[in-house]
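Retro notes, item 3 of 5
We never archived the inputs for the zinc ion complex last cycle. Fixing that now. Sequence and ligand:
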Amino acid sequence: MGLPGHRRTSSHKRRRASHFALVKIDLRVCSKCKKLLLPHTACKFCGSYNGRQVTKAPAVKKAPKAAVAPKAPKAAKTAKAKK
Ligand SMILES: [Zn+2]
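Structure as it came back at the time:
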């Protein structure tokens, strides 16, 4: 059975524990549907990235709300017009 070769001093423990802290996730707001998403990723709710429609939006298609879909294209048009 293995035994610790040397004593772990308090400073050794604290130095190791200095990397244990959790990092807060950096979230951005989707320009189209205003939901939170990770930066540099396509929105998983509306499928847009940087104002463009990149992928299909499975979350929006499954949603029964019809009012959500018409709002999204308007935001995309304004984003393109600004460029
Ligand atoms: Zn979105």
